Amino acid sequence: MFFDTHVHFDDFVEDGSFSAVLERAESSNVRKFLAVGGSKEANALSLRLAGEFPNKIFGSVGYDRGLAGETLDFSLLREQAAQRETVAIGETGLDYFYEPEKAKEQQALFSQCLEVAVEIQKPVIVHTRDADDDTLGILTDFSKHWNGDPSRIGVLHCFTRDEKLAKELLDLGFYISFSGIVTFANADPLRAVANYIPEDRLLIETDAPYLAPVPHRGTRCEPAFVVETAKRLAEGRGCAVDSLAKATFRNACHLFGVSEGAGK
Hints:
By secondary structure, the protein is of the alpha/beta class. 44% of the residues lie in helices and 16% in strands.
């Protein structure tokens, strides 16, 4: 079985394709999903879906970097974070590719979300792009304040950086998650990093509806496609797809503190 650890279900719900997308995923043996939050609206949807599909869809809540500088309701976020359906805080993090001028505001927002993770003791889902040093610095400080299970501190999602950053994150206790980007023709350096990650710290995701893997490039990504990412990772690591699926499924269930059993 496969666990897609990062799905933005918003578009699928909005255009009415959610049920069909979920059915196609289950037909491909994708049995668990992390519905990612990151805004007031995404957080609410994540929790709603987690409530409707217990032990199949799991919720996360947070404020992502695009909201940096805005007035945000952290009292509401703490209430949502404490709910049973919420298994992680995020996504949140830094992205200097599009708005480098908002670096300070992004850092402040990121730190506030990490404070919620420390308070609620739930793992954090981290995004980073063109911000390696600042991301690592903030997460290093976060790790010093983390008083939860050290093996459940969080995950760097959709990893695209180098082995150096991967090692530093692993040393802090983080999991590393790979998306369909590892299937791209120009992704040999990233595949080399993926081969370096220990089996017990590896996760897979789609980041749907973004980043459709080969052979689905050019189409809207959906959770069923996580199988293609698993196949490419297994090929590079010299193991069977079933073995990689089992390991990443087990890892995801441990990180998010959920049962490995079948959902509703």
